[in-house]
Design goal:
- It is a single chain.
- The protein is of the alpha+beta class.
- It folds into 2 domains: 7-132, Sandwich (Jelly Rolls); 141-219, Arc Repressor Mutant, subunit A (Orthogonal Bundle).
- The chain has helices at 13-22, 77-82, 103-112, 114-140, 143-158, 173-180, 184-196, 212-220, and strands at residues 24-28, 33-35, 44-49, 52-57, 63-69, 74-75, 89-92, 96-101, 165-167, 200-203, 206-209.
- Strand 4 and strand 5 (63-69) form a beta hairpin.
- Helix 3 crosses helix 4, helix 5 (143-158) runs antiparallel to helix 8 (212-220) and helix 6 (173-180) crosses helix 7 (184-196).
- The chain starts with 12 loop residues before the first helix and ends with a helix.
- Pfam families: cNMP_binding (PF00027), HTH_Crp_2 (PF13545).
- One of its GO terms (molecular function) is DNA binding.
- It comes from Allomesorhizobium camelthorni.
- This is Crp/Fnr family transcriptional regulator.
Amino acid sequence: MTPALAFMSRLDDTDLAAIARRWSECNFRHNELIIAHGDSDRDVFFLLEGRARVTMFSEDGREIAYRDIAPGEIFGELAGIDGKARSASVVALEPTRVARLTGAAFRDIVINHPTFAWVLLEHLSAQLRRMTDRVFEFSTLVVRKRLILELLRRAEENGSVNGQVSISPAPTHSELAARISTHREAVSREMSALARRGLIDRRGRRLILHDLALLERLAAKKQ
């Protein structure tokens, strides 16, 4: 399956010029907060360089990671649409440059640029489908299957060669735990089991997935 194109890469030159004329750029350091959960501002952001993560924390301090944001992606659009408080935080995973569009400018572009509005609808549909899949996984699947599905999603983003995928940088066990709603210890146990079967292998900063077909069968197998 071909990975989805970044939001900005699907816009035409007219739309790109329209948003670039009205945005302002800013930089964030590693681990710096870009958006805070509960904030009331309505600005919409586009990630230009670096990486960021949409996340929340439970009352006991456990991180729940919703998605990672890559260059060319839009974020903060929900508050720009409905005017409500921020539903999650966004933190920079490395030195990051973003473009910031005021809520008023965002709404004006949506109204006056139908191609932009359609790409936005496609983006929101993809996010909703992804969230639906994750709710199903959290509600019905054991940790092992949730972990394998998350690894397969990351493999899809990187592309395979002869049935193998190299994921770089390799996600930490804490990162994976945050993505599949479990604890680091559970991820460590399942990753060790996959490694013993020869299905994954960590090499420095890379995580190698050796047999995507078998991983897919394990994810689909009745538990």
